[in-house]
Batch of 2 targets.
Target 1
Amino acid sequence: MTANDPSPNHLQLTRDGQLRHFLTLDGLDRALLTDILDTADSFIEVGERTIKKVPLLRGRTVVNLFFESSTRTRSTFELAAKRLSADVLNLDISTSATSKGESLSDTLLNLEAMASDMFVVRHSQSGAPHFIAESVTPGVAIINAGDGRHAHPTQAMLDMLTIRQHKGRFEGLKVAIVGDVLHSRVARSQIRALNVLGVDEVRVIAPGTLLPKDVESLGCTVEYDMARGMKDLDVVIMLRLQKERMEGALLPSEREFYRLYGLNQDKLALAQPDCIVMHPGPINRGVEIESAVADGPQSVILNQVTNGIAVRMAVMSMAMGGQVAERQQKQSKGAQA
Ligand code: CP
């Protein structure tokens, strides 16, 4: 499976530009990304209430389909759906019929037959959520929770919300993404979001073996030297070494990687004094980040996790709204014909 269409907006947007699936940030404009951030902002207060619920998805069924492991994304999608009052089904792939040889398409047909309204999909194959969105019953929304090396759009949006909360703006910011960009769906979605939202510079800092070919074409500058790369930064985003996706020896050793590219207090001191430190998780202490930095005053790593709930509430409610609007448009056209 591949994500062949670089701008799949015929799939993820309604004719009047509302979200109906959320597959990638490619092709989405600043107004829509800002709408997601503003909607997420409005949901933050829900998480601070005693009764953390709004009725926007009451009576709807959300199915979490995670074909790859996850802690943060899966649990925050589940919490987000529950805070929107949806019924949530977490399919355990290891005990489901897919482990007995049932195809993905047949599993989905069975779940659609249970009148599901939304599938949240994580898959090791790039393009899997796109493939599902192309074939799913009209009215069912597909949300990408991370596919292969391709995209992790809700992660990028919760990162953007965190940056906006701490910096108050995107204009003028210098942001670096450090480490294993080659295998990172998160980095691809972040680079896209940062460019659309108008930061001054997106810089990737990594050894050449951990950068995709023509990485600059994604919309970033490249720095191989960490000390030079840290200069003037407002935001530094560390990435995990994704060993599960590495083929062959791309690094001399973890110890060498940490010496050259690990974020410690000395390297952080080279950035702006109010530079924030981010990481999508899971973090590997002593591999890409020092504990004193991960737990230090400039770290916003746990704010990112909290913001994941509000961003996922925003995306799920907007996609369901788009599906409803589309169905109403079709019904009114049918009545006129
Ligand atoms: N950031 C992220 O996708 O983490 P999980 O793999 O735990 O969901």
Target 2
Amino acid sequence: MLDQRRLPAEVVYHTYTDYAGVARAIKDMVIRGAPAIGVAAAMGVALGVERSPARTLDELRREFPAICEAIANTRPTAVDLFWALGRMKRRFAELVNGAAPGALDGVRRAMVAEAQRIHAEKRAIDEAIGRFGAELMPQSGRVMTQCNAGALATAGIGTALGVIRCAVEQGRKLQVLVPETRPYLQGARLTAWELQQDGIPLTLITDNMVGHFMKTGQVGAVVVGADRIAANGDTANKIGTYQIAVLAHEHNVPLYVAAPISSLDLTIPSGEHIPIEERAAEEVTHIQGVRIAPDVAVANPAFDVTPARLVTAIITERGVARPPYAESLRRLGEEGARIQDSGFRG
Ligand code: MRU
């Protein structure tokens, strides 16, 4: 894993050889961003099975829930994590139910293959999101994003940044306004770095400049990622997305959410049911280890929920959902499930 805590100053990779290490890496944000967390979760489960000390299928069956539990107890908001766990659990159940007693090594290999399949699928999904979303981007001018919904946050070209990448590839003359995204600075550290590497023009701004740039007509569209989208289209994304959405609405700027079907949580009716992760106070009181505030009470919700009425459209790999989302998302969700059931697995 590329250590995202150290970017852009240092490019450092870590290798993990046990599932507990992968769980820690997700929790500590070595890897972050909803789809990347999902892929890491699948890899973590695969690693747990591959390296398990179990000598029989029964022993592995007994150990398996603890592996999944460790991965689940890392970050609560991004539903991709739970989607990936669900998929790995279903595959495990398929493999062990009715398996021959000596099939342990086959199960280990098949679980690794399933995680690799998820990785490959996620790459293709980003490309599809990018293609659908590019058509919604303006021909030229500035588009705003939030946090980092780029290649670092997924297994491919990114969701929101994938849309921007595809639009630029198609010849649209876009520049990206990148809010720094306090407190963790995913905008300043990661999105700015990614776009710079790709030669896509960007302007870094602080979070409190968003209103000014909207008001002075300098934003043609907003495109953000998502951590969890409820059945009615309410969308949890990095803290600050809600205020950008309110400002975009006030200034008639369209706001697009770009996310894979796996970020839909159709089991919850609205955003009120989305668990919001509260992170450590030090992320607010300190920057890069340097204290910038006295030792006072701190709030650090990592995500906020943007109500569906502020979202112009939701871009997925299956197409673009428009309001009313209860209807359009249900249709896209069903389509996704049908494709998966009919042998996406090959
Ligand atoms: O706390 P993070 O950095 O994991 O939060 C990431 C975001 O909020 C992203 O916008 C979201 O996960 C979509 S990533 C394609």
